[in-house]
Give the backbone structure.
Amino acid sequence: MDLTLYFGGACVENPGVGGCGAVCYGPKKAFLWEESRRLGRTASNRAELHGLILGLRRLVKDKTDCQHLKVIGDSQLILQFMQGQRKVEDPILRVMVSIARGLASHFPSLLFAQVPHEQNQVAKSLAERRACQQGLVEGEYFVFYPNLCGSSSLIADGMHINVINDFMAYAHTPEILIDARFLASLPSFGHSALTSLGECKASTLSGKVPMTILGCLKSPLPITFMGQEAQIRDVIVVEDLPAPMKISSDHPQIARIMKEENASIVFNANTKLRSDLFPEQFQAHRFWEPSDVHFIAAGYGIQQGMA
């Protein structure tokens, strides 16, 4: 079966909260399906790539019998990236292009084509509606409330790093998060993991700065934490995290290690979480900008002027 996939992305501001959409047609332009997602803080080019990834991932997930796939968008830049006609300079875009190419490799016959904006209106409208969506829809987001009083250290695929944790945090969620750029840098694990990402039920991290989820690792991530080796499952890949990783004391494997090591969580106001604990590429993240939100113990608490 020959299929045509349209994709699009949009941002309320650039950068800002975004949305993406994809529409698929069969032979004789028969409508098959449409899909859209709300994104966290992103940029317009990234939102376009999210639309492409969304559509390709749906086709791969459905195991669509497709002899020939035509992919249509109005972003010349993204189409040039996908066809290798232009070098990808931005590190986040480079990661996303790798993800999209990994998905595209499932189709033996693939053609990219650019159309004017007005000929891509259905996919664009889906993306714009999602970008302008008010409020959060349950099931589409995870909460990002890190411990603001300190960090942890671990080894991921042989690399020693500091990571954010949620120990003693205001709200606990069991997700393990990894930054897409850091994942790409892992020597023996990163590339293959990126090009085979699975779908994640959520598309956004909510918190001080909304962030965009790219997918979920299909293979377990090898780490060493508190001297114990582990293969961490259900790791979520984030477009632009303010640190290489975030670990959770509610994740079953992290909780097991802490229990076996008799780890105790101690509050120390002198070990406040700081951007300079992490590599330079993370220090410009908006999460680290001054805010009117203060923290009580390890979690977000009251705002200025409130008691």
Notes: Residues 2-131 form a domain with the Nucleotidyltransferase; domain 5 fold (CATH 3.30.420.10). DSSP finds seven helices and 17 strands in the chain. The first helix runs from residue 44 to 61.
